[in-house]
Automatic annotation (TrEMBL):
Annotated organism of origin: Granulosicoccus antarcticus IMCC3135
Signal keyword on record: yes
UniProt KW keywords: Signal
Name the record gives this protein: Uncharacterized protein
Signal peptide: 1-39
Amino acid sequence: MIMCKKTDRHVSGQYVLTNKVSLVAAAVAALLAAPLAQAQPVVSGSEISWPDDGWYQVQSADGLTNICEGTRSCQVEPGSYIVINHTTGERFTHVTVPASPATGSIQVDGNTVSWPDDGWYQVQSADGLTNICEGTRSCQVEPGSYIVINHTTGERFTDVTVSSSQATDEVLVDGNTISWPDDGWYQVQSADTYESFCEGGRSCTVAAGVYIVINLTTGQRHEGIVVEGDDGAGTGLVLDTQSNELITELAGYRLDEAAAAAPEVAASIIAGNIGVTVLEAGQYEVDEIAQPTERTQYACAEGGTMTLETGRTRIRESEYSHDTSYNIWEFDNCQTELDAGVPVAGSYEIIGKLAVQRDFVSGSRFNTIENSIAFTGFDIRTDGFALTVNASVQASDNTSGVSINRQRSVSIPQYVLQESSVPFSAPSLTIADANFIQEFSNTSNGALQSSSLDVQGWISGELTDDTAVSVTTIAPLNRVLGVGSLESENVPFSGQLQMLGSDDSVLTISANPEASEGQYLFVDYNLLDADGEQRETIGAQLVDLPLAAYDSLDWLDE
């Protein structure tokens, strides 16, 4: 019954993208590259080797084939390779093994000069006045010209040139934004959980942390990308970074999960066997026909009662069926010990009502699933935890022939979650005056798809650093996508949302019809932060919320 932590929901390509990269990113990239001077792979003949400072892997240049892993060196065919130190996250691209390395030849790979194991070598500056390296198998140097001497044979190699060319596949970091070249389809993942935050676009705006950036077109991986963040306003609220999370909260998935714990709470009360009273039957309607319910009142261990009302209907007719599960839990100052279905074991006081209904209707050419959840005057609390809810959810999934229509409608007049035993501390999450409507339809076997989103309400808590945020739909987000012969039915993605923070930050979210291809929808962000600084993000992926009603109330059938 209790929503105790934020649901980890997959959001395709979450969260935000931008096409602006400042010169600060170059400095960050330089810092990331600094350790390479001490851990560069070395090529000698057909062998690639590396220092004993981690667990290494050698891949083909496209990243699709694993050649060696977990060794100190790797014998390979002539070509270009990727070498990865999985311990540090460092990647070395374009490690080249020449076709026919001549005995005594000098090789340059990036900023590394190397040579065969046929003597005692020394590397000097081009004027011969400065000794750079000696007695090693390779030498890390700055861009420029050098002299390499094999003191065993006396052979000298002059004008050995190390270029200063910058890799074209560089990943840059600017504040909270990671960006990359326009050379493929990129994905950004958390280095800790591998959760995907963004797919596609030219950049991704994320919270501070460590990330993996993958070019899915070439297979190239960039690991250990550090985002220190630049949240600007002095608070933890960064609207363009957090907008998808805010929309997800207003979608009310916490209500689904809170309702799903109801049977555990009820079972704990019933197991106490303090007192049971069978009440007069109630009723509900199915297909406009009154159906009976069973009503039973249970005494709570420390005072008060819980009334459980249940109804089950199964209609079977020719080419038509209708199954209904109907449940109401009503608490009248119920005081009891709980350790199941709640985040904190303890002595609870519960008041209010929770009603849940699930309908499954099917015919010869259609089926419909409809779920409803309603919290009325509901409040549950103990030391260190309290939840107050007045809210409802309606979810439907309709299939007819080759067409699918899904809808989720949420109303949250009040949702207050308190997760602290400190008196008068701020709630972990507060949602009020929220309404959320999302629809999706798929007709003609997927050849014509339409989607829409309308959301409003205000929210505050840990997610917003206790800053209140108001969300408003200026114009509903709408898109119709036609494929093949139905391409003429296309309606470009349109609409606009706005978020206003009590710290005076303003975020405008506008549909981007040009970036929205296939099933993914992209938007543009225009942020005016609390310090009066403006930031624009082009082509951020809009959160992809689950709409299917199939499994949200499966627990009713258990």
